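Task: encode each sequence below as structure tokens.

Item 1
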Amino acid sequence: MESNRRTVAELVAARWDDHRPGLWFEERTLTHHQVAAAAAARAALLADLLPPGAHIGVLLDNTPEYPLWLSAAALARAAVAGINPTRRGPELARDILHTECRVLVTEPAQLPLLEDLELPGVRLLVTGTEEYEALLAPYADARPDASAAVPGDRLLLYFTSGSTGAPKAAICTQGRLAAAGRSLADQFGVRTDDVHYICMPMFHGNAVIADWAPALAAGAGVALRRRFSASGFLADVRRYRATYFTYVGRAVQYLLATPERDDDRDNPLRMGFGTEAGAVDAAAFERRFGVRLVEGYGSSEGGAAVQWSPGTPSGAVGRAGSGLVVLDPESRKECPAALFDAAGRLLNGDEAIGELVNQGPNPFEGYWRNPEAEGERRRDGWYWTGDLFCRDSDGYLYFAGRTDDRLRVDSENLAAAMIENILARYEGAGSVAVYAVPDPVTGDQVMAAIAGSFDPEGFAGFLAAQPDLGTKMAPRFVRVVDRMPVTATNKIHRALLRREGFRCTDPVWWRPPGEPTYRKLTVPNQ
């Protein structure tokens, strides 16, 4: 039974002799059998190049070579380090060398990134070249052998966003990835005839853990998009008959920003699964495309997860499972239940907002060669997520942002994520980010970045009409941007926004204390 399989290698090998179409990319279609055979050939090559347990870097767009090398690494008991192609120079070299890659799989389009980099001991394999095909040719008859793989074999080293320092390489074993894939396949009822559309970058855990792995576990197909394209999304979905995709909130906003058409709902998608879409955008997406977005929460490192279930209140992520608590990071005591008024306004954010902590068993497997970062996650024998939440009296959890996003205004804790959900209703806002800037006396002031159109009087009137906007929540500063800055994984680059504050080249509006509307801010020596 496939549900009893414990390694990714076994899931790959199980597709041998399965001649259904299984992988789509542009004009190419491979059967599940062809995918398993190609993975076996690469695994055999790896076995001749490297010892078991070695690391290979993969610096590719979402081409078929990416899942083939993930599958090959599982069969060969090697580990893949997903290399971020938006990194440059010494930072890019640092990622490759830090993860001790002996082989780097790349493609001609990425070679300019590697020019002038010192990468001692790293062998390049350049896909799509005659030399690459000649290297693989002797292994064309290899068959997938999963007998040696064990659940504890390291399979992934995937980097966190690195918004607060050098990216950390989180470890994921074959056992954890296989279990995650099986769990999501069961949760969403993934069938063998489903097609998972992978448009998020495969160097990140979102695409591999939440999209590729459940398809592999269920025997479903995958369709790849080299890089995310809002304009190409619906055409791809129809072309490949895709039924499922993963997202981050910014990608949903890009999709909603495309011109509406009468046939937008004519698509085969059943659902999307991801994070940070926000209630307003999720509702708009379902109205327009007829597709439900399921918001989930899972720390990149695997230390905590929250699942949505029927009956989850609007704005909540899901019910707290066993071991999940919201703690005051200073006192280590559990925060009191969140209290909301009839309008949905959080009344006791100062007490109720804390860090989500998993006090029970968790699958966090550490960071590669980074004991300091590991120590930040593992404290008191618990897993500290670094994310802010509050929990209501029924046990439902509400995301409040990263610990770096904490705002403290007039001695009151505010949730950036909750303010963003309110500001997202503003008609001119294509996207919104809320963050703290220093108050000249003490604590923070609220600043918002809005991508879209902005009318200072209209915005002030909008704020006054929002019943769930607390008295401390209204932004003191509003930065109006043409396009929201994002990271390589299409998440809003909040660290950059915080760093620049109101001393930036974009127009900034501010509301002086006690005044009803906003005025243009002029910063000396800007």
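Item 2
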Amino acid sequence: MPQTMDAEVVRAWCSLALEALGREREEIDAINVYPVADGDTGTNLYLTAESAAQAVEAVFAAHEIGRSAPSLADVMHAMAHGALIGARGNSGTILAQLLRGMAERIGTGDQLAAALRRAAEMAREAVAHPVEGTILTVAAAAADAAENAPTDALHAAYAGARAALDATPRQLAVLDLAGVVDAGGRGLLTVLGALVEAVSGEAPAAPVLSSARPALQARAVEPCEGGGPAFEVIYLLEADDEAVARLRTRLDGLGDSLVVVGGDGLWNVHVHVDDAGAAVEAGVEAGRPYRIRITHFGAEAAEPATEPRERVQRAVVAVVPGDGLADLCDQAGATTVPMRPGEPPASGELVDAIRRAHAREVVLLPNDASLRHTAAAAAEQARAEGVRVALIPTRSAVQGIAALAVHEPDRRFDEDVVAMSAAAGATRYAELAVAERQSWTSAGVCQAGDVLGLIDGDVAVIGKDLTDTALTVLDRMLSSGGELVTLVLGDGVPTGLAAHLEAHVREGYLAVDTLVYERGGRGTPLLIGVE
């Protein structure tokens, strides 16, 4: 297996890590009992990785404009910087510092073992009072194993990290009591597993996550039960090294779980304190703090002290591709989030939309299969702010339209969610796309310029003409029955396509109605739904 890394490998690493953390986010949250049993380690790591991935994509996008390829150093530093500015929680902040350490070595061509060693050292230095049995222990074990491996340092690092993770309950009493491994260490193992897959093309076997014993899960609802600090304070800080050194000393006297990561004038500060104001004031004295986030442990369901207006009872938040569908959903009362081609919304955009909806209850419709984990992370954040959120995993805009059509805000919340879920689930979806290059598909080999008909996410038809391919897809979908066909047209479709498809349905399928919407915007030329 090659041990070298390049910019594309790092890009793949970011994408795979984000996907894996999305899959395992809830399970990692469930075993989060240290340093505070607030059940958010998986979510924090996901949000940190999401910020890192966005920074990497931005570098590639900038180089595409100039028609050049980014260097390994450029991409690694972008990944580390993105993690730094988006770091959440104790583990997310430490992960950002680990990536910064790796960027220092990998970006200069050093071997993986040296990069892991530098990462482990910098992460430990960033923590005011390092504790064994945590993410720091797992990081150090990965570096040790990589350094001692005669060959295949990457797989050795993963194996060393996995063994260290399994041993964390014997090092930290609270983990042993709960019957779990360290949540931060488990998240780091996921990130390392993504690196193994990015380099080798094969994902390592993931360990089975333990679940906390019921007593500890109950404690997670009241994380301050043991008398620990009441607030988590996080902010970005522009300051010089000397000022940050003084800040560390002051914050260490105010609370615990102190982690300060970064460098070159930009830092991410994380601390648990009873006096949140004093922690922020210390940052003001050190430099310029911004993006200040203060979380009161155990008060996640509390309403804001003052509200500019009364919350509505219920709202729908929907991701929509194109202005036409945005207008349609707006008219139906939904708060919309645009889905731009090649630029999927981040979880923060979804959270902002939920806040804009200003409702006690929110139904979230992602309307794209690739947004499943992003939407789940956004829902978790909104719930922490006291909003009751139901995520309906719609995989296409036509499923979202079907769900919105049966939405009744006057029904009980659970009944409304069930009805909307049933409508979305009863809607088969298809889309037509144009192949950009030759590739293998589930329907055979396609060439650049071919029209692909995807049904329920899989390529089912390969054609040369958009209209003919659409007709074939429609016939396949209606062969198993249907009462309503929904057509959503993008820009650039042939004139008269909708009328041609409507006539085909009317003539060939009795009692099947057709609805047509103009989506507008670039991207997929045609979406089809069959209910």
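Check on item 2: Residues 210-226, 299-307 have pLDDT under 50 and may be disordered. The radius of gyration is 25 Å.
End of task.
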